[in-house]
Automatic annotation (TrEMBL):
Top-level lineage group: Archaea
A family per Pfam: DUF7978
Signal peptide start and end residues: none
Protein name: Transporter
Regions crossing the membrane: 20-41, 107-129, 136-158, 170-197
Keyword entries, A-Z: Membrane, Transmembrane, Transmembrane helix
Residue span, DUF7978 domain: 1-197
Amino acid sequence: MSQRASSRSASDRRVGSVAAGGAAAGVVAWLLGYAVTFLAAGDQVEQSLADLNSIVGFVGGSEVPTWKAISWLYLNAHMAVIRVTGLPGGSRSYDIIAESDSANAPLLYVLPPLAILLVTVAVVAIAGARDVVSGAVGGAAVVVGYFLVTGVVALLSAHSFGGSVTVAVALVPALLLAGFAYPLVCGSVGGALVGLVRS
């Protein structure tokens, strides 16, 4: 009886340790995906912004910083749309990647799941998952960090050109898709695979 309790206690501690690692992995995975997006598309985004910002600056508006545009692009890679409000005729939604002329743009859709899987597998393995359950729980814990960063970036990257015209990621889809669905599915699958291999 005591051996069974001791075994269950050790298993609970392992799950807790793996889950804590998973939460930290969410932050790392988000930053990794963002960094790769910046490296892959930063030059093209800066060139596109140069024309836009010259017009915006000419009329006295607030220019868009590159980091905000990359944030929109990375969140858009999670299927979260970008919404422009304050325009004549009402608000409009854009899927930057789908509407891009670049043949390589659709590859950005692969980035979020890949970043989550890679980081989750590494962290869950280091945290010591020894079975499918602890691996899946640790992997699913990626949601905590990923959701937090998604919410903060979605809010901070909102941009006002001046007057009533603003550009921002649609917050609810961003939180549901980028912050919750992607890390939950990819993280739990990655973690479960680590646990399965090590069981």
